[in-house]
Write a structure and sequence with these properties.
174 residues, mainly alpha, Butyryl-CoA Dehydrogenase, subunit A, domain 3, globular, sigma factor activity, RNA_pol_sigma70_r4_t2
Length: 174
Protein backbone atom coordinates (compact mmCIF):
# COMPACT_ATOMS: atom_id res chain seq x y z
CA UNK A 1 0.00 0.00 0.00
CA UNK A 2 2.67 2.62 0.88
CA UNK A 3 4.54 1.82 -2.35
CA UNK A 4 1.44 2.55 -4.43
CA UNK A 5 0.83 5.77 -2.49
CA UNK A 6 4.42 6.86 -3.01
CA UNK A 7 4.23 6.08 -6.71
CA UNK A 8 0.98 8.09 -7.08
CA UNK A 9 2.45 11.01 -5.18
CA UNK A 10 5.67 10.93 -7.19
CA UNK A 11 3.70 10.99 -10.44
CA UNK A 12 1.64 13.95 -9.19
CA UNK A 13 4.82 15.85 -8.27
CA UNK A 14 6.39 15.18 -11.67
CA UNK A 15 3.22 16.34 -13.43
CA UNK A 16 2.26 19.39 -11.32
CA UNK A 17 5.38 20.74 -9.58
CA UNK A 18 6.18 23.24 -12.34
CA UNK A 19 2.63 24.66 -12.23
CA UNK A 20 2.79 24.96 -8.44
CA UNK A 21 6.15 26.73 -8.71
CA UNK A 22 4.76 29.16 -11.30
CA UNK A 23 1.85 29.98 -9.02
CA UNK A 24 4.13 30.35 -6.00
CA UNK A 25 6.48 32.64 -7.93
CA UNK A 26 3.59 34.90 -8.85
CA UNK A 27 2.25 34.81 -5.27
CA UNK A 28 5.65 35.87 -3.94
CA UNK A 29 5.99 38.58 -6.60
CA UNK A 30 9.02 36.97 -8.16
CA UNK A 31 10.89 35.73 -5.08
CA UNK A 32 12.11 32.44 -6.55
CA UNK A 33 13.70 31.26 -3.30
CA UNK A 34 10.57 31.81 -1.23
CA UNK A 35 8.47 30.27 -4.01
CA UNK A 36 10.61 27.13 -3.92
CA UNK A 37 10.30 26.97 -0.12
CA UNK A 38 6.52 27.34 -0.33
CA UNK A 39 6.25 24.57 -2.94
CA UNK A 40 8.44 22.25 -0.89
CA UNK A 41 6.34 22.89 2.21
CA UNK A 42 3.18 22.38 0.18
CA UNK A 43 4.45 19.04 -1.13
CA UNK A 44 5.33 17.89 2.39
CA UNK A 45 1.87 18.79 3.67
CA UNK A 46 0.27 17.19 0.63
CA UNK A 47 2.26 13.96 1.11
CA UNK A 48 1.19 13.75 4.75
CA UNK A 49 -2.47 14.19 3.73
CA UNK A 50 -2.22 12.22 0.47
CA UNK A 51 -4.99 9.74 1.35
CA UNK A 52 -7.45 12.59 1.96
CA UNK A 53 -6.17 14.70 -0.96
CA UNK A 54 -6.37 12.01 -3.61
CA UNK A 55 -9.99 11.22 -2.75
CA UNK A 56 -11.01 14.58 -4.26
CA UNK A 57 -9.50 17.10 -6.64
CA UNK A 58 -5.77 16.86 -5.88
CA UNK A 59 -4.88 19.97 -7.89
CA UNK A 60 -7.40 22.10 -6.00
CA UNK A 61 -6.22 20.65 -2.69
CA UNK A 62 -2.58 21.41 -3.52
CA UNK A 63 -3.46 24.94 -4.65
CA UNK A 64 -5.34 25.56 -1.40
CA UNK A 65 -2.37 24.30 0.64
CA UNK A 66 -0.02 26.55 -1.36
CA UNK A 67 -2.15 29.66 -0.88
CA UNK A 68 -2.49 28.93 2.84
CA UNK A 69 1.28 28.41 3.11
CA UNK A 70 1.86 31.77 1.42
CA UNK A 71 -0.58 33.61 3.68
CA UNK A 72 0.80 31.86 6.78
CA UNK A 73 4.34 32.78 5.76
CA UNK A 74 3.38 36.46 5.61
CA UNK A 75 2.07 36.24 9.19
CA UNK A 76 5.25 34.81 10.68
CA UNK A 77 7.17 37.17 12.99
CA UNK A 78 10.49 36.86 11.16
CA UNK A 79 8.93 38.36 8.04
CA UNK A 80 7.99 41.49 9.99
CA UNK A 81 11.54 41.88 11.33
CA UNK A 82 13.06 42.22 7.87
CA UNK A 83 14.45 45.61 6.94
CA UNK A 84 12.99 47.16 3.81
CA UNK A 85 15.51 48.88 1.55
CA UNK A 86 14.97 51.16 -1.44
CA UNK A 87 16.60 48.83 -3.97
CA UNK A 88 17.88 45.28 -3.85
CA UNK A 89 21.66 45.07 -3.58
CA UNK A 90 22.05 42.96 -6.70
CA UNK A 91 19.25 44.00 -9.04
CA UNK A 92 19.66 42.88 -12.64
CA UNK A 93 20.23 45.51 -15.29
CA UNK A 94 17.04 46.19 -17.24
CA UNK A 95 17.04 44.64 -20.69
CA UNK A 96 14.54 44.16 -23.46
CA UNK A 97 11.19 43.44 -21.82
CA UNK A 98 12.72 42.90 -18.37
CA UNK A 99 11.69 46.32 -17.11
CA UNK A 100 7.98 45.63 -17.60
CA UNK A 101 8.30 42.26 -15.86
CA UNK A 102 10.25 43.83 -13.01
CA UNK A 103 7.70 46.64 -12.64
CA UNK A 104 4.85 44.14 -12.63
CA UNK A 105 6.48 42.03 -9.92
CA UNK A 106 7.15 45.16 -7.85
CA UNK A 107 3.51 46.22 -8.24
CA UNK A 108 2.37 42.73 -7.22
CA UNK A 109 4.66 42.85 -4.19
CA UNK A 110 2.94 46.04 -3.04
CA UNK A 111 -0.45 44.31 -2.85
CA UNK A 112 -1.64 42.71 0.40
CA UNK A 113 -1.18 38.91 0.38
CA UNK A 114 -4.83 37.88 -0.03
CA UNK A 115 -5.40 40.47 -2.74
CA UNK A 116 -2.27 39.28 -4.55
CA UNK A 117 -3.43 35.68 -4.19
CA UNK A 118 -6.82 36.53 -5.72
CA UNK A 119 -5.18 38.17 -8.74
CA UNK A 120 -2.68 35.34 -9.21
CA UNK A 121 -5.32 32.62 -8.96
CA UNK A 122 -7.69 34.41 -11.34
CA UNK A 123 -5.23 35.78 -13.92
CA UNK A 124 -2.06 33.68 -13.70
CA UNK A 125 -3.62 30.30 -12.93
CA UNK A 126 -6.75 31.24 -14.93
CA UNK A 127 -9.13 29.83 -12.31
CA UNK A 128 -12.82 30.56 -12.25
CA UNK A 129 -14.19 32.79 -9.51
CA UNK A 130 -15.61 29.72 -7.77
CA UNK A 131 -12.31 27.81 -7.87
CA UNK A 132 -10.37 30.84 -6.64
CA UNK A 133 -12.87 31.25 -3.80
CA UNK A 134 -12.39 27.61 -2.86
CA UNK A 135 -8.61 27.99 -2.89
CA UNK A 136 -8.77 31.13 -0.75
CA UNK A 137 -11.50 29.82 1.55
CA UNK A 138 -13.80 32.79 0.98
CA UNK A 139 -16.95 33.74 -0.93
CA UNK A 140 -17.08 34.43 -4.66
CA UNK A 141 -18.03 38.03 -3.92
CA UNK A 142 -14.85 38.46 -1.90
CA UNK A 143 -12.78 37.11 -4.80
CA UNK A 144 -14.49 39.50 -7.21
CA UNK A 145 -14.03 42.56 -4.99
CA UNK A 146 -10.43 41.69 -4.05
CA UNK A 147 -9.56 41.10 -7.71
CA UNK A 148 -11.19 44.35 -8.83
CA UNK A 149 -9.41 46.37 -6.15
CA UNK A 150 -6.09 44.67 -6.88
CA UNK A 151 -6.38 45.32 -10.62
CA UNK A 152 -7.17 48.98 -9.94
CA UNK A 153 -4.06 49.24 -7.74
CA UNK A 154 -1.95 47.50 -10.38
CA UNK A 155 -3.24 49.87 -13.07
CA UNK A 156 -2.35 52.86 -10.89
CA UNK A 157 1.10 51.48 -10.08
CA UNK A 158 1.88 50.61 -13.69
CA UNK A 159 0.28 53.67 -15.23
CA UNK A 160 -2.07 51.55 -17.32
CA UNK A 161 -5.18 53.13 -18.82
CA UNK A 162 -8.36 52.64 -16.83
CA UNK A 163 -10.55 52.35 -19.93
CA UNK A 164 -10.46 49.09 -21.86
CA UNK A 165 -8.39 49.14 -25.00
CA UNK A 166 -10.57 49.23 -28.13
CA UNK A 167 -9.19 47.05 -30.88
CA UNK A 168 -11.74 47.76 -33.61
CA UNK A 169 -11.78 50.94 -35.60
CA UNK A 170 -15.06 52.55 -36.61
CA UNK A 171 -15.17 53.14 -40.33
CA UNK A 172 -16.72 56.12 -42.12
CA UNK A 173 -20.45 55.39 -42.49
CA UNK A 174 -21.27 58.00 -45.07
Amino acid sequence: MPVKRDREFEEFVRRRRRALLTTATALTAGDAFLAEDLVQGTLVRLYLAWRRARSGNVDAYARRVLVNAFIDHRRRPFVRREQVVAAPPDAPAPGDGDLDHTRLLAALAALPPRMRAAVVLRHVDDLSVEDAAAALGCSTGTVKSQTARALAKLRDALGAPTEPFVTSVQGDRS
